[in-house]
Amino acid sequence: QVQLVESGGGLVQPGGSLRLSCAASGFRLGYYSIGWFRQAPGKEREAVSCISSSDGRTYYADSVKGRFTLSRDNAKNIGYLQMSSLKPEDTAIYYCAAEPMTPCVLNHPDWNRGYWGQGTQVTVSS
After folding, report:
1. What is the pLDDT of residue 101?
2. Burial of 90 (0-12, 13-18, 19+ CB in 10 A)
3. Tens digits of residue pLDDT in 29-41
4. Confidence tier at 102 by pLDDT (50, 70, 90)
5. Nearest to 20 by CA among 10, 29, 12, 30
6. Beta-carbon contacts of residue 72 (< 8 Å; ≥ 6 apart)
7. Torsion, CA 59, CA 63, CA 66, CA 70, rounded to 10
8. Dihedrals φ, ψ of 37, to 5°?
9. DSSP class of residue 112?
10. Which run of H or of E encompasses 72?
């Protein structure tokens, strides 16, 4: 059974950090680019970051550049999103996706045909 499961979300104070995980089962995550997306209440889904399957290059939205770091461990079939210097505007449900595109492109419509997780809530509040 093909599945992506996000974990690591929670409540954190502004300026804090969280690490999200995206665990894949039923397929080899190493053959796919991984994307992270988020959706805040009342807002459209936003592409946050992606990492290419071919060379591991990463791409970030301007809103998170310098604060978020995306990595992957192909041996463990997991992707990670390290989030630092979190702001209240980072509050959202975060989703990971896997799609064979390479290199990855943040806002490419092909993400919609990939595998998606169920999402994990991140709340940044004092």
Report:
1. 87
2. buried
3. 999 999 999 999 9
4. confident
5. 10
6. 29, 30, 34, 51, 56, 78, 79, 80
7. -40
8. -130, 160
9. G
10. strand 68-73
